[in-house]
Design a protein that fits this description.
By secondary structure, the chain is of the alpha/beta class. The protein has two domains: about 250 residues, TIM Barrel; about 55 residues, no CATH class. Helices cover about 40% and strands about 25% of the residues. The chain has 15 helices and 17 strands. The protein has a nine-stranded mixed sheet with strand order 9-10-8-7-6-5-4-1-11, with helices on both faces. Strands 12-13-14 form a three-stranded antiparallel sheet, with no helix packed on it. A three-stranded antiparallel sheet has the order 15-17-16. Helix 6 packs parallel to helix 8. The longest helix is centred in the middle third of the chain and has 17 residues. The radius of gyration is 21 Å and the shape is globular. It starts with 8 loop residues before the first strand and ends with a helix. The relative contact order is 0.11.
């Protein structure tokens, strides 16, 4: 069968979870396992819209909790992805996993499918903090999970959260140190956010949940950077740290502003300059696909300037920043023409620095990066 040249990355969304955590704003459905097989039918139908298999260097299966599926369902999903996405010899094939769902048999199943990177949604190694986050695993399960996965899959990344309501700096320091003891090559470390529509958002509005003060959050973030750097980790993006040679290749596709396929409920793709997002409701997504209708809920065709500004913001998330020569080559617009005045103003505030043809965030800029993105977009 003919293979068409296209984006070299693909994301597959699996929305099923045991339960929805109070802080979660992702496309998730909990307690509806009876929908899984129909959802896989829907994924198969959406994949057919690709018309021919697509070659990819990175394949990322996220959620939700993909490892919530049974072994039989995982194998069916793997067969489907093998049919439509032809992976390169040095591919990166990632599955997100929840410690409470992962078993030795599932790890063996994933490894046999060719999965070579596992993203573990640990969030914390402290029991009280896990209860606050409404996670369904224990610190012991999380540590045991890391050990179990290492038998078959060396490339493990841990997701960790700091500044959880009630958390002190010393508690976070102990938590991150426990994560470092797991001997994994990659960590994604995020500050607690309260997303509109979540239970945590509503609890904060009603005064039953308090956000950690901004100064403590900043101190936690700076300590994280310093502690991991001293331990040989490389911070290569605002929230991501890796041992040398273990950076996430798939996420770097996003940060370089490159195109990618995406399949599933709530999945957002960027192909041929067009950004599309599927319907976030899992049941609506299934119904649309099984009825032969489009799953797309939102569609945006970016113009040259929009694409360039987005590429600038995504690129500045990386610690290396944005090369002015590279930016002009890939967008056709110079950084000075696009946002020169804004960049120099942020430089005067000590938030950006220009050196060796690159614009990048300073340490002060890292502390307020979210507000910088708003200004540059």
């Amino acid at each position: 069968m003919t293979v068409v040249a296209a984006p070299r990355a693909a994301y597959i969304h699996v929305p099923f979870c045991r339960h929805r955590c109070g802080y979660c704003n992702f496309t998730v459905v909990a307690g509806r396992d009876e929908l899984v097989d129909r959802y896989l039918d829907a994924l198969q139908l959406e994949c057919r819209a690709l018309e021919v298999p697509r070659r990819v260097d990175t394949l990322y299966v996220g959620g939700g909790t993909p490892t919530h599926l049974s072994i039989g369902q995982l194998r069916r999903l793997g067969t489907l992805l093998d049919r439509w996405f032809i992976r390169s010899e040095d591919d990166e094939y990632t599955f997100e996993a929840n410690p409470a769902d992962l078993t030795r048999d599932k790890v063996d199943c994933l490894a046999d499918m060719g999965v070579n990177r596992l993203s573990l949604g640990v969030q914390s190694f402290q029991a009280e903090k896990l209860r606050m986050l409404e996670r369904d695993h224990s610190p012991r399960q999380a540590a045991g999970c890391c050990e179990m996965v290492r038998r078959r899959i060396a490339n493990i990344t841990l997701d960790m959260i700091f500044a959880v309501p009630g958390e002190s700096l010393s508690q976070w320091q102990q938590d991150l140190q426990r994560a470092c003891e797991q001997q994994v090559p990659h960590m994604s470390v995020y500050g607690m956010t309260f997303e509109r529509g979540t239970m945590f958002w509503n609890r904060r509005r009603h005064g039953t949940l308090d956000e950690v003060d901004e100064q403590t959050q900043a101190t936690m973030y700076e300590w994280t950077i310093d502690h991991l750097s001293a331990g040989g980790w490389q911070q290569y993006e605002v929230s991501n740290y890796a041992r040398p040679g273990w950076r996430s290749r798939h996420n770097q596709v996003y940060w370089r502003g490159e195109e990618y396929f995406a399949i599933g409920a709530g999945a957002s793709r960027y192909v041929a300059g067009v950004r599309e997002t599927n319907h976030r409701s899992t049941t609506t997504y299934i119904q649309r696909m099984l009825q032969g209708r489009s799953p797309v809920a939102e569609r945006e065709c970016l113009d040259v300037v929009q694409k360039a500004r987005e590429r600038l913001v995504l690129g500045l998330r990386r610690m290396e920043g944005v090369s002015q020569q590279w930016f002009c080559e890939v967008t056709g617009i110079s950084l000075d023409e696009l946002a020169g005045a804004d960049l120099r103003r942020l430089q005067s505030l000590g938030l950006l620095v220009e050196e060796n043809d690159h614009w990048r965030l300073t340490r002060a800029g890292l502390m307020v990066s979210d507000s910088i993105w708003v200004e540059l977009l």
